[in-house]
Structures are given as C-alpha cells and as structure tokens.
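Data availability (excerpt). The following record was deposited with the supplementary files.
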Amino acid sequence: MLIKNIKSSKNLKQAVAFNTFRAVSFMVVGILFVILGFIIVRGISAISWEFLTGMPKEGMTEGGILPAIVGTLCLVAGSMLFAFPIGVLSGIYMNEYLKESWFKKFVRSMTNNLAGVPSIVFGLFGMALFVQDLGFGDSIIAGSLTLGLMVLPIIIRTTEEALKSVEDSVRIGSYALGATKLQTIRRVVLPICYPNIITGLILSVSRVSGETAPILFTVAAYFLPRLPHSIFDQVMALPYHLYVLTTSGTDIEKSRPMAYGTALVLIAIVLIVNLFANMLRKHYNKKLK
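Predicted structure:
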C-alpha cells in the first residue's frame, strides 16, 4: 500500500511538472504569435512595391524604405564578414590549442562579461575608435566593425561549445590514422560542428539586425534618400529608421503605417536570413548522416 502511494505521489508530481512546463511553453509561443500578429495586421497595409523599392519622401512620412533595407543588409553582411571568421578561429584556439590554466579561465570569463556589455557602450567605443581615432567617420565600415565586436563573444562561445560536443575518441582516431592536429580539426572536427556553429551565426545575425544604439553613433543617417556607393558612406538602417518614425520630430499619426510596415520588413528580413542559415545547418546535418 505504501509503495502504491509513493508511486502515485511521484506520478502526480511528474504530471504537474509536465503540464506546467507545457503551459509555459505554449504561453511563450502564444506571446510570440500575438506580437507577430499585431505587427502583421498593422503593417501589411503599408507594404507595396513602391514602399519596398522607393526612396523616402516628405521627412520619411511618405515614399519607400529601400535605402534603409540596403543599409541594414550592408551592416549585417559587413559585421558577419568581420566577426564570424575571427569568432570561429578564436573558439578553435580556445578549445583545441589552449590548455586548461588560469589564463584560459580568465579569457573565458572576460568573453562572457563582454557578451553582457550594453550595446550603447559598444556604440560609444565604436564612435571613439573607428569614427574618430581611425578616421573612418560615420560609415558602413565603422558600423560593421562595431556590430561585429558586439556579437564576437556570442560566436566565440557557441563555437567553443560546439567543439566541446565532439568526443575525444574522434580526435584520437584521427591521430591514430596519421593526421596532424590541424588536419584533424579541419577535416574531422569542424564538419561535425558546422550545424552548431551556424547556430551562433543565426543568433548573431538576429541581434545585429535589430540593434539601434551602436549604429546611432557610427553609421545611421536620419534622412538619406540615396543608396551607398562605398564602405565609407553613411546609410539609413531599418532599426534607426523605425526609431525616428516613432519618436523624433515626425508627424506620428501620418508616419504610423510606415512605422509598422518598417517593423514588418525588419522581421521578415531576420526571418529570411534565419531560414537560410537553418537550410545550411540541415544541409550539413545530412552530410554527417
């Protein structure tokens, strides 16, 4: 009788915990759908070919958002070209070459702390270093380098964790066949890690796409109805464009549809980039099977 009571009590606790976790999961998903639905319902009316391909007019209350779309894509591409190779190589060095020591713990701790620094601090640092000291001015390269520094800790940590997930027996087997350490990392370890490393890329792109504070100090223009011609040009960007439409000196009632439309386009761009990255991850997963 006692054993049955204990079992029923355990089953009850398990059922309560399971249903609680399921309810919380559904609540989180529900909140996400509510936010997306709110943006879609309010912003879909503003979406048109002219809106996506035209230049802003009348203080950004009319016309299109093409310069902001192009500027955002340039910043995302530039920051990833800078941060992704450096982050992956740093993660490889941390996990594969650097032995356990106080120095490694210190570097890992500093990397984690860097990931928690507010984005506006990165913006001030980027303005001081890239805009002023290095003489880049308000430009795509200054904004891209600043955003790249901001997401560098994310890429390093995800790469390091991906490498840790590979069992040492895989490396030992490669060494036993006569491969060098570099060959083992390049041809054995990294192909297994590609899906998880791409996860870091997805997280980085998502964060870079929506940041306003760093680009406010380094690249973003209030009203610039033209496309960039070089990496030293200033550009408009969707996050800052959205901020300006809703807060700074525009006719809010008149610009509200454009603001919701801009938010919808920004979400769509992030979604498309994430879907493309997920396709890459699935491609590498299939190659491993």
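Summary of structural features: The beta strands are 56-57, 62-63.
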